[in-house]
Amino acid sequence: MNKVRITAVRQTEYPDLMVQYENPIEHTCDVCLGQQWTSIGGQRPEGLCPSAWSSMREFVEALARGEGNFFDGWMQNPMSAMISCNDGFRPVSFYLEVVE
């Protein structure tokens, strides 16, 4: 199985949606831009947000099995994917790529 590197590449915030829909919370996402994890055997790396993992798991597992070329040539590197977590207020985009 391939190792898959997961890199946090962007975080966006939607303050208007937060004001309109979100209850005030003290603690939000701990992910830092540039932070990386490595999935071995298609498993969730320690320290990676479980909610973010649920958004990317199927892609990481497929890349670990050697599959790729999602959606018929979506990515320049066919053994990669760009996935965002499911936080509708402050989503983080993650770049997934097979590493040797």
Whole-Å distance between the termini? Answer: 10 Å
Shape: elongated
- The secondary-structure element order is EHEHEE
The biggest beta sheet reads:
4 strands, antiparallel
Strands of the largest sheet, in order across it? 2-1-4-3
Description:
The chain has helices at 15-21, 50-64, and strands at 3-11, 36-39, 80-84, 92-99. The protein has 100 residues and is of the alpha+beta class. The protein has one domain. A 4-stranded antiparallel beta sheet has the order 2-1-4-3, covered by helices on one side. It is elongated, with a radius of gyration of 14 Å. The termini are close together. The relative contact order is 0.32. The model has no long low-confidence stretch (mean pLDDT 95).
Descriptive tags:
100 residues, alpha+beta, four-stranded antiparallel beta sheet
Lay out the secondary structure:
Blueprint: E1 3-11, H1 15-21, E2 36-39, H2 50-64, E3 80-84, E4 92-99
Antiparallel strand pairs: 1-2, 1-4, 3-4
Q: What's a quick, concise take on this entry?
A:
The chain is α+β, with helices and mostly antiparallel strands. The protein is 22% helix and 26% strand. The protein starts with a strand and ends with a strand.
